[in-house]
Amino acid sequence: MGSSGSQSPPAATSARESGLDERERSILAFELEHWAHAGAKEDAIRTQFGLTSGRYYQLLNALIDSPAAYVYDPQLVRRLQRVREARMAERTMTAVGTRASHSSHSTE
C-alpha cells in the first residue's frame, strides 16, 4: 500500500466547483500516494478501481489534460504532466537508439 504523506486539494476548490466526478477525484487522490514498488500500485489499481493498469493510465492521461483537473489540484497535475513528458522523452530516445542500432547493422 501507499504511504500517507499525501496532501488534500486546495480547500477553495470543492468537489462541486471542480467539475470532476467522484472517480476522477479518486484517481487524483490515488496519485498522491507514494508506492514502494510498481507491483503494489498495479495491485491497488485493480482493487480500488477495478481497472487494468493500462486502462487506468489511459484515464489518468486524459484527466491530467483536463482544465477541471488543473483547477482541482494544479500542483499535482503539473507534476503528473512532467512525469509523463519525461517518460515520453525516454521512450523516444530509446526508440531512436534502437532504430540507429538496427540501421547500422543493416549496412554491413
Q: How does this structure look, described?
A:
It is a single chain. The chain is an all-alpha fold and 108 residues long. The protein has one domain. It is 70% helix and 0% strand. The protein contains six helices and no strands. The mean pLDDT is 83.
SSE layout:
Elements (H helix, E strand, L loop, with lengths): L14 H4 L3 H10 L6 H12 L3 H11 L3 H6 L1 H33 L2
Quick check: average pLDDT? 83
Strand content: under 5%
| Class derived from helix and strand content | mainly alpha
Radius of gyration: 18 Å
Keywords:
108 residues, mainly alpha, 6 helices, 70% helix, globular
Brief account:
By secondary structure, the protein is mainly α. The protein contains six helices and no strands.
